[in-house]
Amino acid sequence: MAFSLPKFIGHRGAAGYAPENTLASIHKAALLGTSWVEFDVQLTCDSELVLFHDSSLERTTNGRGLLAGRCLKSLKDLDAGGWFGSDFTGETIPTLNQALSTARELDLGCNVEIKSSFGRERETVRAFARTIVNFPKSPTILVSSFCHVTVQMLKHYLPEVRRALIVQKIPANWQSLIRRMQCSSLHVGEESLDQRQVQMLQSTGMRVLAFTINDRKRAESLFAMGVSSIFTDVPGRIFSPMTVSI
Ligand code: G3P
Ligand code: MG
């Protein structure tokens, strides 16, 4: 499905203002005028997809240990908001289904970043494909991953959903990677980007998105290089919603 992306995408919802990867964070991004959000998803031990960034629970919940070793029910008992601020105490880890419902209700596009654990890539992609296929009136979705195996499998299991490869730095073999995975965009760590690279990618029709930028000047210089969109934790701070082109 063809779609256009806004210049700014709320990162992990609006991670600068609310606990990342929670429904509160997605609501906050919408409130700040963002029309798309990025969030990370991972597989639980009982094959459910939940929003979560780290492999372990300590930084963003009151739990301990690895997320992948826990079932959905036990993850749902954790507090995923109190670490960020007392206003968010009681916020829980959302399922992918809950996040999609929230995005649909708020009319947000979603960049779903799949963080597969090693050896569970197929199971993760199949759970994702099942969720998307069974989700009524799904929001617009762009799916991305750092993991090459995951992106390849997405092409197989969900060919109609747009894909992106995420890289910290543009690899030497980017052209063959992109061709093999048939991605519509490359999402690149902002520290490594320069104008020559962005133009080289653009000349092949590839869109370049950069993460994670929380500074207006840096955002402007990336746009001047030809970057299409940036991921930001602080959408309201670095742009006026009125200037976003969609
Ligand atoms: O998808 C862009 C960005 O979120 C990738 O890095 O570690 O913040 O998920 P990370
Ligand atoms: Mg991410």
What tags apply to this protein structure?
246 residues; alpha/beta; TIM Barrel; 9 strands; binds SN-glycerol-3-phosphate; binds magnesium ion
Structural features, described:
There is one protein chain. By secondary structure, the chain is of the alpha/beta class. The protein has a single domain, classed as TIM Barrel. The protein has nine helices and nine strands. It has a nine-stranded mixed beta sheet with strand order 1-9-8-7-6-5-4-2-3. β5 (141-145), α5 and β6 form a beta-alpha-beta unit. α1 runs parallel beside α3 (96-106) and α4 runs parallel beside α5. It is globular. 44% of the residues are buried.
**Ligand names:** SN-glycerol-3-phosphate, magnesium ion
CATH topology: TIM Barrel
CATH superfamily: Phosphatidylinositol (PI) phosphodiesterase
| Uncertain regions spanning at least 5 consecutive residues | 241-246
Task: Indicate the CATH architecture.
Answer: Alpha-Beta Barrel
Please bin the fraction of helical residues: 25-40%
The whole-angstrom Rg is 17 Å
Average pLDDT score: 94
Q: Which structural category fits the helices and strands?
A: alpha/beta
Give the domain tally: 1
What is the strand arrangement across the widest sheet? Answer: 1-9-8-7-6-5-4-2-3
Annotation field: number of helices = 9
- How many strands, which pairing sense, and closed or not: the largest β-sheet? 9 strands, mixed
Alpha-carbon distance between the two ends: 15 Å
Provide the β-strand percentage band.
15-25%
Quick one: CATH class? Alpha Beta
Shape: globular
Give the oligomer, counting copies of the same chain as homo and different chains as hetero: single chain
- Helix-strand string: EHEEHHEHEHEHEHEHEH
Tell me the number of strands. Answer: 9
